[in-house]
């Protein structure tokens, strides 16, 4: 569609004739509908009784998950407004690691409430102002709901378990995995805060999820360079070399004529002497374990095996970096540059076989500054979902320690937020009050969704939650058996990091208000 303006009686074309333009109510309606559709796509995954989604790509790859960020990332979303809701989930995931579904559902409901306000002729700017004021009230309510008690180990266990309950954890319950998660976070908790980057989740099929364990050190998928090399080394001095352990290539083109057997023997002897020189260097600096990013010559492997040195070749750059960092070593540019000061340390390096795969465990000593959650599962689908659940739990426990404590979960924080906003709305003048009240109604979607996913009637549950909150000061939906009950989440150990709630409110509000303000969409084709 071409867009034109007339100047002096002559048309002036502004937009390419292939451009498509949607204006006014049509643009708002289209954008809001797209945002709501994305929200509805993840809504049924919310809470401990949420359902999973199966996502199948064009190539037939299958992902089964109830992780909001993963669902939205895997979906092929084209509508620009819908992509803004996806960005909400990505921001939530990047900042606090969990609460992506909460943020997406809230953004969708804010858009739904905004649509009703627009139908009542409330100006988009008024809606935006009201939403931002309500968001500030919500943040104040979250601060008020944050528990005063110290974030101790018991609290962290509750946070981790709440995060994983209802997610794909195979045959092991969330309580047992929570102990692993909290142990990992506590191990890397320093005076400067939790060093989250020092925790890695590695997956391996071939056993049930209950075999998941915490390893004080790092794991890499490598196999020894030679069958006669040791498969375990204690008190391991570790060298990392960013080069080949092989014969040097001549820098000039040369052709050698060998006419005598002695000459051939001399050439072979010279090559062996060169390779032995490399092995001598490795042994002389005290290395017992060698990781090489390049190749190791077959004869060099044999020499290393005879010296009792465990060596690995073609190690990936990321693995080489993590090994050097975790063990306190440095990466040498070549064997001849290797010095004793470059070596890292570990209490033990061992190679374990899982089906047809070798996994190297680098444990203890300097390596214990980093920890690895070694997640097991019967199939790749199980281990993939378990990895997502563990990473979310690690992130929320970190957030609870580093970013401001915990609040009651199970919808209790949202009930308190909505009540606080409604109380304050009465003092706000003009039509902006309608937008503030609409924000409170939007927040109600979270406990209503929890109730529906738990098997309760969402309207009756919301009425009971409000009544319990008014009388007791705290009320949430506790999953019990095939349905749910109204109770105090703190007594049941259902806790969420305050940072997750704060980020969800902030990111959902920003996305919804940005979409509401759009009244013109110009798309090139």
From TrEMBL:
- The organism named in the record is Halorientalis persicus
User: PANTHER family in the record, alphabetically?
Assistant: CHAPERONIN
- On the tree of life, the source organism's domain of life is Archaea
List the residue ranges of the region (Disordered): 1-30
The UniProt entry's sequence similarity note says: Belongs to the TCP-1 chaperonin family.
Offer an example of a GO molecular function term for this protein.
unfolded protein binding
Q: What is the name listed in the Swiss-Prot or TrEMBL entry for this protein?
A: Thermosome subunit
| Gene3D superfamilies noted in UniProt | GroEL, GroEL-like equatorial domain, TCP-1-like chaperonin intermediate domain
UniProt KW keywords: ATP-binding, Chaperone, Nucleotide-binding
Q: Does the keyword Nucleotide-binding apply?
A: yes
Q: Which Pfam families match?
A: Cpn60_TCP1
Instruction: Note whether Amino-acid biosynthesis occurs among the keywords.
Output: no
């Amino acid at each position: 569609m071409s867009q034109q303006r007339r100047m002096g009686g002559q048309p002036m074309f502004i937009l390419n004739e292939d451009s498509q333009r949607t204006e006014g109510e049509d643009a708002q309606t289209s954008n809001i509908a797209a945002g709501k559709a994305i929200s509805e796509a993840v809504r049924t995954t919310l809470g401990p009784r949420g359902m999973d989604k199966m996502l199948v790509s064009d190539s037939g790859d299958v992902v089964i998950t109830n992780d909001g960020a993963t669902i939205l990332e895997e979906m092929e979303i084209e509508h620009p407004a819908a992509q803004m809701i996806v960005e909400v989930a990505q921001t939530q995931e990047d900042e606090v690691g969990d609460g992506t579904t909460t943020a997406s559902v809230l953004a969708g409901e804010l858009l739904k409430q905004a649509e009703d306000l627009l139908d009542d002729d409330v100006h988009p700017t008024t809606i935006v102002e009201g939403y931002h004021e309500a968001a500030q009230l919500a943040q104040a309510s979250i601060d008020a709901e944050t528990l005063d008690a110290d974030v101790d180990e018991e609290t962290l266990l509750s946070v981790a378990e709440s995060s994983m309950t209802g997610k794909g954890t195979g045959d092991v319950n969330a309580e047992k995995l929570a102990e692993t998660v909290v142990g990992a976070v506590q191990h890397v908790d320093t005076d400067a805060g939790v060093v989250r980057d020092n925790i890695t989740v590695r997956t391996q099929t071939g056993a049930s999820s209950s075999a998941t364990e915490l390893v004080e050190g790092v794991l890499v998928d490598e196999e020894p360079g030679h069958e006669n090399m040791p498969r375990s080394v204690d008190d391991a001095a570790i060298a990392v070399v960013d080069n080949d352990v092989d014969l040097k290539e001549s820098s000039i083109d040369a052709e050698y004529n060998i006419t005598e057997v002695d000459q051939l023997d001399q050439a072979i002897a010279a090559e062996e002497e060169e390779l032995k020189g490399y092995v001598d260097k490795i042994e002389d600096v005290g290395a017992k374990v060698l990781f090489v990013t390049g190749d190791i010559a077959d004869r060099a492997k044999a020499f290393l095996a005879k010296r009792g040195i465990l060596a690995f070749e073609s190690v990936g750059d990321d693995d080489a970096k993590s090994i050097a960092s975790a063990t306190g070593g440095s990466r040498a540019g070549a064997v001849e540059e290797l010095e004793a000061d470059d070596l890292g340390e570990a209490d033990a390096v061992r190679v374990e076989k899982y089906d047809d795969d070798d996994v190297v465990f680098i444990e203890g000593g300097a390596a214990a500054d980093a920890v690895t959650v070694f997640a097991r599962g019967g199939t790749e689908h199980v281990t993939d979902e378990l990895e997502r659940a563990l990473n979310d739990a690690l992130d929320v426990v970190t957030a609870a320690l580093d970013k401001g404590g915990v609040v009651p979960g199970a919808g209790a924080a949202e009930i308190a937020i909505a009540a606080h906003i409604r109380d304050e709305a009465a003092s706000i003048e003009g039509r902006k009050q309608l937008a503030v009240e609409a924000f409170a109604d939007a927040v109600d979607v979270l406990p209503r969704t929890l109730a529906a996913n738990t098997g309760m009637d969402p309207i009756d549950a919301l009425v009971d939650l409000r009544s319990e909150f008014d009388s007791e000061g705290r009320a949430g939906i506790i999953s019990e058996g095939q349905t749910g009950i109204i109770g105090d989440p703190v007594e049941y150990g259902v806790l969420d990091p305050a940072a997750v709630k704060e980020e969800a409110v902030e990111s959902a509000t920003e996305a919804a208000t940005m979409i509401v303000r759009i009244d013109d969409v110009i798309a090139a084709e």
